[in-house]
Amino acid sequence: MWRSTIPRCARPGRYAAVMPLVRVVLGVALALLLFCGVPVPASAAPGVIPGVEVFLADVPAALKGKRVGLITNSAAVNRAGTPDIDLIAAHPDLKLVALLAPEHGIRGAAEAGVSVGDSVDEKTGVPIYSLYGAQGHAPTPEMLQNVDVLVYDLPEVGGRTWTYVSTMALSMQAAARKGIPFIVLDRPNPIGGQIVEGALLDPAYASFVGMYPIPARHGMTVGELASLFNQTQGIGADLRIAKTRGWSRGQWFDQTGLPWVNPSPNLRSLAALANYPGTVYFEGTNVSEGRGTDRPFEQVGTPWLDAATVAAKMNSLGLPGVSFQAVTVPVAAGAAKFGGQSIQAVRMAITDRNAYRPVGTALLLIDAIRAQHPSDFAWGPSIDALTGSDKARKAIDAGQLPALLAEWDRAAAGFATSRAPYLLY
Hints:
This protein is α/β, with parallel strands linked by helices. It has eleven helices and ten strands. Strand 1 (66-72), helix 3 and strand 2 form a beta-alpha-beta unit. The longest helix has 18 residues, at 401-418.
């Protein structure tokens, strides 16, 4: 959206004959810098440029001198790993006056579901207002009293149940009510932007883990989602998006060149993110989704699980891109499920991430566990909110899951078409 300030390569001219020598000299110089331990500037490295860098390199004239309320956490960084908080606080054209913290807090360290209170950022002295505490999930008029523009930069993980997406939508509504611009500093979808999976959320089951009718795996960036929500849900925000540079929809996070920072305490790897749109459903059962183990969201289990039998059954299905392993893993004391115990677990080993479909796979795994342990397995109160309706629970209970999965595939294909006007990349 904003002009990039990255210099363009020099055009060939009368010095073309000496360019091979220049390249050799530059190559030797770069090698010496690396050998001597001198860091190469981030701008010299190929890869994706996040929206925060695009925005700060050329702040629009209408926003210069404005008081900024920043919705962010420690996972929102530039290519050098510097957090947005420090970048915006130091920028001469902007005045950071408020920080707004989502679930997990401004430093991303609080566990899921734990209320976060207001505080003050020690480094900048800027007040931090919680969007996951006693005052609810939306910015209040008091939080925005001195704010001229709301800026949003939080990592996306690719799944509908990620609460940061709801934080963004509620904050857009707050900005619209106050009549101030809402700026999204866009980032790549870490699990790619091509695959869409799962049914759209039924509005009757809207909650903070899914406000609007999008699929479980939507394949969109936060900027694209903001545009979709703003138009289809009638939010009416003065929405402006600082697009990411250099990202293509087929790229996964490890192909971007961006530094990895855990988006939350239990999403610690790209493999966890690849599983998350499906394995998050285990939060709505009495089977652990892996919190408190060494691989949250990559393995699920309980003390009573016959993991070897369930893993063998899942492998017999020949599902694309994944195999299943029976493992025994300890659970850390204090974990919400089976803390301090050892559990029998089924681990998902992804063999082809572009073929793997985590949503359907997770539901088939729940179905297999329930069939193997009908007297032990139980649904939790959040399952319908997580899956977006009561259909998954009822289909599994009735032994009709294959028909539902076929229905969901059709719904996902329809969304992949209808989202097209909102795609930026």
